[in-house]
Amino acid sequence: MTFPPIRDELRGLEPYGAPQLSKDTAPVQLNVNENPYPPSEAVVADIAKAVAEAAATLNRYPDREFTELREALAAYLGHGVSPSQMWAANGSNEVMLQLLQAFGGPGRTALSFAPTYSMYPEYARDTVTEWVVGHRETDFSLDLDAARAKVKEIRPHVVLLPSPNNPTGTALPPEAVSMLCEAAGDGIVVVDEAYGEFRRTGTPSALELLPAYRNLVVTRTMSKAFALAGARLGYLAAAPEICDAIRVVRLPYHLSAVTQATALAALRHAPELLGAVDALRAERDTTVDWLRDQGLQVADSDANFVLFGVFGDRHAVWQGMLDRGVLIRETGPDGWLRVSVGTPDEMTAFKNALTEVLT
Ligand SMILES: *Cc1c(COP(=O)(O)O)cnc(C)c1O
After folding, report:
1. How many domains does the chain have?
2. 57, 144, 148, 321: most buried, per Cβ within 10 A?
């Protein structure tokens, strides 16, 4: 044995994470799909008050069932979802890990279609779940017949797909979700709607299909549209049996009293926190058009980011942008880069920097 006795498959691996640079190095931060607008003074004051009240009870463990929060999340989601169908954790990334702890594991398989969210294979690895990827088409859509065949061949316990997809921005049409739920049989189908609120008009949410499929899980987060990435609150809606299965693997009292108070206060201000979503969607559409006008390839986006390329040396473009104070993300298929949608001023800085880098 060598010290530290870390699992063989983890030895020498680097922890995952986009570069987190200071505002001095990178004044324009467009790399992790955050909402660029901080909460207003009124929202900050209300959250502070709620946290102060929670602080007075910190000698006690929090409500393990986070009952009030599940009620508030169900009310926010609508679509007839009940509190017994809600589950929450510290970011939807923790929700995803819990799903694999409960439904994956040794001898079990999780399936996605690449390009897909880069964290999923790490959760599969951490839970000793076999990780298999099929492929998307060149326009990043899913070929339904090929995807059905893949699901039938692999017979996964868990199918994991972001919609809108990260890093491409592609949303799944409802017929794709239905097909996956039917093809998966008793396996679960997780549609990760972290960017759901940014969908273009006419793109439905998988929440509409929940009553039809007991194996469908729709995850959401307060980190993106909701402008609350720092609070760490993600959640899912699914059949109550699925929530009960997760209860078995969750840590006791995993959602702190401070987290619950923060999320509840924020949900009371949902319209205001989501107030910038329409402006961000418009800015995204403008960014897509502008990038196309530059002669670049751009993926259609239903999210708050845009994937563009194709560059022979994308790292040089990324570095050139950073040298000009604009931090974007080197991710996705070879040659592509991803930019998160920021404020109008930030997008002007992005366009100016990219124009310089490309000439
Ligand atoms: C950002 C993101 C999440 C959300 O992560 P949190 O842990 O809730 O902050 C989930 N899925 C995808 C695909 C994402 O890009």
Report:
1. 2
2. 321
Q: What is the pLDDT of residues 311-330, one digit of tens each?
A: 999 999 999 999 999 999 99
Residue 302 Cβ inside 6 Å of ligand 1? The answer reads no
Q: What is the pLDDT of residues 218-275, one digit of tens each?
A: 999 999 999 999 999 999 999 999 999 999 999 999 999 999 999 999 999 999 999 9
Host H or E run for residue 314 = helix 314-323
Nearest CA among 127, 101, 133, 132 for reference residue 7: 127
pTM of the model: 0.97
Looking at the CA of residue 192, tell me the nearest atom of ligand 1: 11
Token pair, residue 238, equals: 């699914």
Q: Are residues 173 and 206 located together in one domain of the fold?
A: yes
Ligand 1 midpoint to CA 306 (Å) = 16
Range of the domain at 85: 41-268
Judge whether 260 and 71 are in contact, CB under 8 Å: no
